[in-house]
Design a protein that fits this description.
Elements: H1 3-6, E1 10-16, H2 22-25, E2 26-33, E3 42-51, H3 54-62, H4 65-68, E4 72-73, E5 77-84, E6 95-99, H5 102-108, E7 116-120, E8 124-126, H6 133-136, H7 140-153, E9 161-165, H8 170-181, E10 185-190, H9 195-200, E11 205-208, H10 214-220, E12 227-232, H11 240-243, E13 249-257, H12 268-279, E14 290-293, H13 300-311, E15 319-324, H14 328-336, E16 343-347
Parallel strand pairs: 9-10, 9-12, 10-11, 12-13, 13-14, 15-16
Antiparallel strand pairs: 1-2, 1-4, 3-5, 3-7, 3-16, 5-6, 6-8
Helix pairs in contact: 7-8
Bound molecules: NADP nicotinamide-adenine-dinucleotide phosphate.
Length: 353
Amino acid sequence: MSSSTQIPKTQKAWVAVRRGKPSDALICDENAKVPSNLEPGEILVKVQAAALNPVGYKLMGLLPNLFAKRPHVVEHDFTGLVVDANGTELQNGDAVYGIIPVPLNLQSHQGALAQYIRLPASHVVPRPSELKPTEAAGLTLVGLTAYQALFDVAKLEQGQHLFINGGSTAVGISAIQLAKAIGCTVTVSASGKREPLLRSLGADHFIDYTKGPVHEQLSHDPPSPKFHVIFETVGATDVDLYTHSEKYLAPGGIFVSVGIHPHGISGFGQALRYIWELTRPSFLGGTKRTWKWFSLSFKRENFENFAQYVIDGKVKPVVDSVYSYEDVLKAYERIMSLRAAGKVVVKVDPSVD
Ligand SMILES: NC(=O)c1ccc[n+]([C@@H]2O[C@H](COP(=O)([O-])OP(=O)(O)OC[C@H]3O[C@@H](n4cnc5c(N)ncnc54)[C@H](OP(=O)(O)O)[C@@H]3O)[C@@H](O)[C@H]2O)c1
């Protein structure tokens, strides 16, 4: 493809212009500049589809302008076609999927909800031909989160038993598949209607959180042997899951949490209790299990390893819903409902599947 003649000067991009909920914070800039003057190692991608992540609306709602450096294009996950390979190992026309991690988004102002994005070639991998753009768009952020949390932080190994609190979160869906791929037993929690989906992805045991607090269900009927790893993917909904974990998490086991969801902590008192329970030393009655906070940090090596699971068909995309580029605000409503099972995807190019 000879790219230079086909790349327009302006594009439509969804830009955060102020702090607030998406309907207040975002505008669709129909005259945004298409990035030019690529640095060595950077490429230009024509975006076909993008996917939303909770971090997108969390940053929009929480981060003051001083740190967010608005205006900037929003979101992190995408798939598309390379239109300027800029001397890298990629070729114009290559189909890729990838990520603009949060620090890069804030520094470069590039985001996935644009028609063209400039980013380092290291942040994309080839898209397998079997995957449609709407399937590949949302693989990366949640896939790398699950990969790093399970393998780098928790050191999950073949034959171990993993509990995923929030099996139907997009992070949980990736985690189930990665853990099954290395031969683990996986127990998940979700609401009852998710059981068929999560079993189809490989979950061995299912806990319906709507039937009672998960820590009570696990304490009443603990696994034998106990879990080696607990992966909390909902976001601080239940500190009791940690404080009771000696009953169902093996000594030496690790409790990894993806962080705090704005809905997860209601009020100052609950926040204080959370902090106290996570920091209380065992001689003051604290829980004798390791708790770790996890935050994704992009590493090319992890991305290549994760992408191999996708190529091998061991991690398959699960798409909750697909929205048009004009309907981005409806897509945000869907992900903010906390009811999506899989990725909420936006078709940036209306002609793709
Ligand atoms: N630290 C990091 O680097 C990092 C990276 C990625 C994500 N995260 C965080 O991880 C969390 C999950 O992200 P995501 O994109 O995977 O979320 P998501 O896909 O939007 O999560 C929606 C799912 O959550 C489930 N859910 C809601 N409440 C639940 C509960 N109490 N117990 C079990 N499941 C529940 C829902 O299932 P039901 O309909 O069955 O309730 C729904 O399927 C977010 O807080 C996100 O910010 C952190």
